[in-house]
Specification:
328 residues, single chain, alpha/beta, 11 helices, 12 strands, 4-stranded parallel beta sheet
Length: 328
């Protein structure tokens, strides 16, 4: 810093103000200092800055799966929102969701010097009595059912599923079959429960639930089975990737979409508009989930955020060509 100050003809304090983005420096002086930094190859010492400020400007993210589109999109949104606030993100995937692994993940994040943690919790882990997050750590959880103990941000899973089922019933279908996600998934359970409750409230018969694992391959296997169900005229798939496999299976079995069977998905991934036919689906606002996670954990760091509770991000129905009026 002294070398930069000497080359720029300013004080070390001025160099510090420029490197930290503080006000009180004229634009000409700022450009002069930045030019000296580039010439000397100077970079501020982030470790020293962190010790001085008492913060590392880094958020840790713990996730138990990087194989699902929802988790990837949420992680992307968290990283984007964190960058807007001047924070970096340190990712720590956890292979086995157990109490020991959770504690180990927090220990490793502590060694990596993070200011707070966001946990992307797709599965029923925080609901188990054997698993809890370490006390004294500022935490926000995405996609969980633990709002009584933590600050949680999630998509309105039930609301989106209700909209999907009602859309198909409004098109004249007697009932709606459901291709659900994996049994351990919180989101899959919320969507399946809302599917069942919506049919019951409408006085419709509830068909047997068909289970997938979020992948297009599992959707294809389920689609081969559903194609042979003579009473199946409408299917609500719990995500767009399973809907993609379902569409392929129906095509292979000669079942036309939407003339014979209407299909609706959930997520509204970018590729869903390019399916054949383009997929009607429920849009999730992953960017908003990521933004609320970051702002929530920053609020907790400033000690003016909520201690616990759940914030739900609304969904919306996106109508495309994969759903249509039932033909009698």
């Amino acid at each position: 810093m002294a070398d930069v100050a000497q080359l720029a003809g300013v004080s070390s304090q001025t160099v510090s103000r420029v490197s930290n983005g503080f006000p009180g420096v004229t634009e000409d002086t700022r450009r002069q200092v930045l030019a000296a930094m580039r010439e000397l190859g100077y970079r501020p010492n982030s470790a020293a800055r962190a010790l001085r400020r008492g913060e590392f400007r880094t958020l840790g993210v713990i996730t138990f799966s990087l194989s699902t589109m929802g988790n990837i999109r949420t992680l992307e949104a968290i990283a984007t929102s964190a960058a807007r606030h001047g924070y970096a993100v340190t990712l720590l995937p956890v292979a086995v969701p157990t109490q020991d692994e959770v504690n180990g993940a927090f220990s490793r994040l502590g060694e990596l010097a993070v200011d707070a943690v966001i946990v992307i919790m797709e599965i029923h882990l925080l609901d188990a009595a054997t698993v809890s997050l370490p006390p004294g750590v500022q935490v926000v959880v995405a996609d969980s059912d633990a709002g009584d103990r933590y600050t949680v941000v999630d998509t309105d899973q039930a609301g989106g599923a209700r909209d999907a089922v009602r859309h198909l019933l409004d098109l004249g279908h007697d009932t709606v079959w459901h291709l659900a996600g994996p049994e351990g998934s919180f989101a899959a359970q919320r969507r399946a429960n809302a599917w069942r409750d919506t049919l019951t409230a409408a006085g419709r018969t509830t068909p047997p639930l068909v289970r997938g694992d979020w992948s297009a391959e599992s959707g294809h296997r389920a689609g081969l089975r559903l194609a042979d169900e003579p009473d199946c005229t409408a299917v609500f798939a719990a995500n767009d990737q399973m809907a993609l496999g379902l569409l392929r299976a129906l095509h292979e079995r000669g079942r036309r979409v939407p003339d014979d069977i209407s299909v609706i998905g959930f997520d509204d991934i970018p590729e869903s508009a390019s399916f054949l036919p383009p997929l009607t689906t429920i849009h999730q606002d992953f960017a908003e989930v990521g933004r609320l996670c970051v702002e929530g954990v920053l609020d907790k760091m400033r000690q003016d955020g909520a201690e616990h509770g759940t914030t739900l991000v609304p969904t919306r129905l996106v109508r495309r060509e994969s759903t249509g009026v039932r033909r009698r």
